[in-house]
Design goal:
By secondary structure, this protein is of the alpha+beta class. It contains three helices and four strands; from the N terminus they run H-E-E-E-E-H-H. Strand 2 and strand 3 form a beta hairpin.
Amino acid sequence: MQKMAVAFAASLIVCLVSMYVNYQAYQERHYMEWSYRSHGGEITIEFAPGWHSVHIYAMSSEDQDSHKLVFSPALLAVSLFVLTLAGRAVLAIYSTGEPIKDFFILLACYVAVLLGYLVYDELRD
C-alpha cells in the first residue's frame, strides 16, 4: 500500500505540473505544449492531462478562428490512474524500501520518459 501511495503522489505532481505547463502554453499561443493532437479538416483537438482543447479554423475570409480550452476531470483521472499504475510497476522493480527515495526515483523516471518523448518529438518533426 505504501508503494501505491508513493506512486500516486509522484503521479499527482507530474499531472499538476503538466496541467500548469499546458495552461501557460495555451495562454501564450493557443496550443498546449504537452498534448496529443488529432487533426481534422478545419478542426484540431488536443488532449492533455486535465485539459481538452478544440481549435476550429476559418474556412472563409469573413470567419475567424476559434480556440477553446476546457478543464476535463475525466482526462485528469485517466492520466493520474495510468501514471500511478506505471509508477507502481516501476517501484515493484526498483523500490529501495524508503518512501522518500522511492518518490524521487519515480520522479526521475517520469522526467527521463518526458525528456525522451520531447527529443523523439523534435526528431520526428
